[in-house]
Amino acid sequence: MEIQRNKDVKIPVGFRFYPTDEELIIHYLKRKVYSLQLPATVIPELDVFQTNPSDLPGDSSEKRYFFSKRTMNLNKCSSGYWKSIGKYKKIVAPGNNQTIGVKKSLIFYKGNCTKTSWVMHQYSLVTSFSTQKITMPEGEWVVCCVFRKKVKRPAMTLAKNISKIASPSCSSGITEIS
Amino acid sequence: MEIQRNKDVKIPVGFRFYPTDEELIIHYLKRKVYSLQLPATVIPELDVFQTNPSDLPGDSSEKRYFFSKRTMNLNKCSSGYWKSIGKYKKIVAPGNNQTIGVKKSLIFYKGNCTKTSWVMHQYSLVTSFSTQKITMPEGEWVVCCVFRKKVKRPAMTLAKNISKIASPSCSSGITEIS
Asked: Where does the NAC domain start and stop, copy by copy (chains A, B) (predicted)?
């Protein structure tokens, strides 16, 4: 009746790793960056940006989380590239307005510039944050959450949302860092 | 870094009880009905049909699961009633086509016949199932999953879905059993 989800604790059947943004930043990413013990061994280390999303380990029907190193202008893999879209979303500490991290969305485009349904939410710690600039060190750990956007027919609202976040022209495979 | 979710195991932060329909039927409801040990003490017993959804214990922002006894024509509480909508959905055992349970959706209506955003998914074991008849014993345990349907503006698709499942005329508070 139990599923071995990590080395140090057995998670009963029916439980899944669905952290809030705040839990992910405070209890997993921040502790990873500072080399502290994690609550559970549930986020593997993987160079997500250099791996085709369809080749990522784990259940592709669920959101998959990975610790990956921040890279500059290296978002291309053999079959395509991740394109950053939208703006950074502040993640604030519960109970106050202190920014503890940021969340960025990316869409995977095939090499022939074809938008796919693969989405990544990249979570980063911030060393300083203002409306003008986000400072994040190169080579630092980030958490990447990769999943396939479900598109139902008819799904006018969903289609609108996807077109919104995938609207940037397909002219570059470079992720905007700030 | 741990949250006490039940008596027999500590669930690390970030994990939540999000069972599949099959997990809920096989590992929780079936074992409850047959008085077998459950994987985790995470589903409380409560007479959901006699309780106003806004008064249910737990985090109202998440899906809440309860073991409740099946009742006939007793879906009214002080502030309104649960109205069954749609048809039973078969839940089949993984790997074969054997029906192990059924899932039924209900909408909560206020006493003045006003449809609300409260939704219940009721999971039941079946003793026999055919396209003609579903046999479930009165007074047997069922699992009720209660949550508030999120309605975004604009949300044409979601609005369509809600209107579909809430379409029955508001003429009765009696849940269809078969």
From this structure: 11-149
pLDDT digits (tens, 9 = 90+) for B92-106: 988 888 888 999 999
Domains of chain B: 2-166 (2.170.150.80)
ipTM: 0.76
Chain centroid to CA A87: 14
The rounded distance, in Å, linking the Cα atoms of B58 and B127 is: 31
Cα separation of B62 and A135, whole Å? 34
**C-alpha closest to that of A24 among A60, A67, A58:** A67
* Segment (H or E) for A161: helix A156-165
Query: Looking at the complex, does the CB of residue A13 fall below 8 Å from at least one CB of chain B?
Result: yes
Q: pTM score, two decimals? A: 0.75
B151: nearest CA in chain A? A157
C-beta neighbour count of A128 within 10 angstroms: 9
Torsion angles phi and psi, residue B5, rounded to 5: -95, -25
